[in-house]
Amino acid sequence: MKRYTIAQLEAFLAVVESGSFRVAAERLGVTQPSISLRIRELESALGTGLLERGKGGVRCTEAGLLARQYAERSIEVLDEMERRLSSGDPLSGSLRLGASNTFALSCLPALLRTLEARHPRLRVELTISNSSTLRSLLDAQQLDIAFLVDALAGPHFVVEPLAACDIAWFSRRGMLDPQQPLTPREARDHRIVTMPAPSPIHAVISQWFAHAHVPLPTLDICNDMATLVRLVKLGVAIAVVPACLLADELSSGEVERHHAVPTLAQWTIYAASHIGARGRANEIIIEIARAVIADSPLAPAPATRVILPSATARR
């Protein structure tokens, strides 16, 4: 791969932003021939022309427009590295944080408030999705840390269990008899709403019916957990829901929890990161997450760390 320098990228961006080699040279404190040389060297390294002169001044070619995007991102990353290293705060700059719907609805607001109070220079980029999608993003190193509700499978992940999470069938009060066990044959006579496959909740329902040798009924699909919970509260459908998301409604009697036969296994909420991204910053985030969980309806899990060099069983 041909090499190019930061000075060349800065010269290119200065010309693009000002539309002039002369103004770019003045801005960077160098001569105009130096700017021209850096641009030629960058074009040579990339193997394509980046700039062209027109009546209105210098402008980007089609390749130059694409190069500008990458150059701006490169300079931004380098500036962020400098700020983070010089500040002494491991949590400054940007943090790409992923969260499953369960963690997002139960713990994420408190986690973000604490991060903002303790690390005001930190900028959080959130991704809220199901655990399957978050696994893929971690594997592609597009997330720094993620909070999932099932164990990761894949090479070189660091995983820490944070909390136990009960899941159960819920309905609006009066829809079903809470004193009677809920079986797949009885559940299929009601409208069931769930998250889309391959979400953990969809998998739980599919496996529950399969274990009882009952054909999976038609399921209503909702891709937003908050809306799904609301549908249960309104009596539109029954659903498998993490119990922590309906704790208040259960206490008030607005909804009822049903004992499932076969029983539903408890979930574990994990913090996961790619082993290459592990550092003090992630350790601080996990420490804060544990404190948040301790004040939530979730049951804290013992602090253990697991490195997964190969595939492990998925829920």
User: Care to count the β-strands?
Assistant: 14
Q: Could you name the CATH topology of the largest domain?
A: D-Maltodextrin-Binding Protein, domain 2
Major pleated sheet: 7 strands, mixed
Shape: elongated
The average pLDDT is 87
Q: Strand fraction band? A: 15-25%
Q: What is the H-and-E element order?
A: HHHEEHEHHEHEEEHEHEHEHEEHEE
Broad CATH class of the largest domain: Alpha Beta
- Kindly report the name of the CATH homologous superfamily of the largest domain: Periplasmic binding protein-like II
Distance from first to last alpha carbon: 42 Å
The rounded Rg comes to 26 Å
**Oligomer kind:** single chain
CATH architectural grouping of the largest domain:
3-Layer(aba) Sandwich
Task: Describe this protein's structure.
- With 315 residues, the protein is an alpha+beta fold.
- It folds into 3 domains: 6-87, Arc Repressor Mutant, subunit A; 93-165 and 267-308, Periplasmic binding protein-like II (D-Maltodextrin-Binding Protein, domain 2, 3-Layer(aba) Sandwich); 167-258, D-Maltodextrin-Binding Protein, domain 2, CATH 3.40.190.10.
- 43% of the residues lie in helices and 21% in strands.
- It contains 12 helices and 14 strands.
- The protein has helices spanning 6-18, 21-28, 32-46, 62-87, 101-106, 108-118, 131-139, 184-187, 200-211, 225-233, 247-252, 280-294, and strands at residues 51-54, 57-60, 93-99, 122-128, 145-148, 157-165, 167-172, 193-194, 220-221, 239-242, 255-258, 267-274, 299-300, 306-308.
- The strands form 4 sheets. Strands 3, 4, 5, 6, 12, 13 and 14 form a 7-stranded mixed sheet that branches.
- Helix 1 (6-18) crosses helix 2, helix 1 packs across helix 4 and helix 2 crosses helix 3 (32-46).
- The protein is elongated and about 85 Å long.
- The chain starts with 5 loop residues before the first helix and ends in a 7-residue tail after the last strand.
- The relative contact order is 0.15.
- The model is unreliable at 307-315 (pLDDT under 50).
- Residues 4-61 form the HTH lysR-type domain.
- It comes from Chitinasiproducens palmae.
- GO terms for molecular function: DNA-binding transcription factor activity; transcription cis-regulatory region binding.
